[in-house]
Amino acid sequence: MYPFTPGSYAPRNGWYVAAFCNEIGEALLSRWILNQPVVLYRKADGTAVAVEGRCPHRHFPLGESRRVGDAIQCGYHGITFDAAGRCTFVPSQKTIPGVYAIRAYPLVERGLWAWIWPGDPAKADEALIPTLDEIGFNLPGMIPDAFYAMHVKGRYQLLNDNLLDLSHLGYLHATSIGTPDDAATPEVRDLNERRLSSRRYMNDTPQPPMHAYTDYRGPVDRISGMDFFFPGFHSGIGEQRYPASHARAGEVINSSRVWHAVTPATRTSCNYFFGMSAMSQERLDRARVLLEPVLAEDSFATEEIEKIIQTMDELPPELMLRSDVTAVQGRRILQAMMDREKAEAAMAAPDPQRAEEPA
């Protein structure tokens, strides 16, 4: 499935953001994750949980049902499931069949985010979640906040591609956060087993329109970059300093961290969570207003590409550019994760030929 091999669209064994922590409360929160309905809520003791959002009886959505204490009671026939997924009540009979259960997902709250593991629960290692230090969450003097949780009608990898190729900033976002130097400046890349990193160092460059945080309107030294933590979390850095030609050379004008979490919803749609930190509450409040249309531009581009992909009878191959190196690396890493999952599943599956052999 574009841009992966047929049948592939996202790794399952990985930590994805299911919600911002402040979205999860007493009320049932419905969200699709990797083509499965999921319900999130907090138990009476404050613990956040995530369970399958489909009643196994008639497939009624449990997100449209109701809380009974820490359990969910299906709104169709009253079948009730506790926070661990066990069926505790069937109104029409006294016995509860052993098969009556729903899946409970590993869920970890860290920073602004609630992280879910949709794959094999035995592989859900919390150490694989990006640490707060790795993503610049704990930087002194910086204030972090959750901004927007969106549903985008485009496959998850289209947004990953967008965030792995910041050369688009000077064009898709030319009136706000980018300049042509975002495309013209070569990238510095770094890869390890946890993340793929990209940086652009732009010296004596014009300020993007939205980055005028002081009365100074002259050129700046800028750093722009992104760290992609597999399979769907992007931690971005933005920094502006006075250039060498200025009397205050090297002094920080503005610094920020942005966080993009991209989680597959269905095969052709995704959940998109954006948060950031800034040097003051005033700058944070300003960014919350100014960045909303910027994120809408990314959503627009993603959805328009999705329309073309789904409509064409045959999709021609992409014509790649030098600036695509980081995005291609990201695709290959995710494809390798999916190939590994497929191979492990094949090894674990019973051999039908062996099963038919006489004892």
What would a concise description of this structure say?
By secondary structure, the protein is an alpha+beta fold.
Q: What is the helix fraction of residues, given as a range?
A: 10-25%
Number of domains: 2
Could you tell me how far the N terminus lies from the C terminus, measured between alpha carbons in angstroms?
42 Å
| Order of H and E elements | EEEEEEEEEEEEHHHEEEEEEHHH
Fourth CATH level, the homologous superfamily of the largest domain: Naphthalene 1,2-dioxygenase Alpha Subunit, Chain A, domain 1
Number of E-type strands: 18
Structural class: alpha+beta
According to CATH, the fold-level topology of the largest domain is Naphthalene 1,2-dioxygenase Alpha Subunit, Chain A, domain 1
Q: What is the second-level CATH architecture of the largest domain?
A: Alpha-Beta Complex
Overall body shape: globular
- SS strand fraction: 25-35%
- As residue ranges, the low-confidence spans are none
Radius of gyration: 23 Å
The largest pleated sheet is described as: 7 strands, antiparallel
Query: What is the highest CATH level, the class of the largest domain?
Result: Alpha Beta
Q: How many H/I helical runs? A: 6
The chain-level mean pLDDT equals 95
Set out the fold topology.
Blueprint: E1 16-20, E2 29-33, E3 36-42, E4 48-52, E5 66-68, E6 71-73, E7 80-81, E8 87-89, E9 104-105, E10 107-110, E11 113-116, E12 143-152, H1 156-164, H2 169-172, H3 181-184, E13 188-191, E14 195-205, E15 220-229, E16 233-241, E17 252-266, E18 269-278, H4 281-311, H5 325-348, H6 352-356
Antiparallel strand pairs: 1-11, 2-3, 3-4, 4-9, 5-6, 6-7, 7-8, 10-11, 12-18, 13-14, 14-15, 15-16, 16-17, 17-18
Helix pairs in contact: 1-5
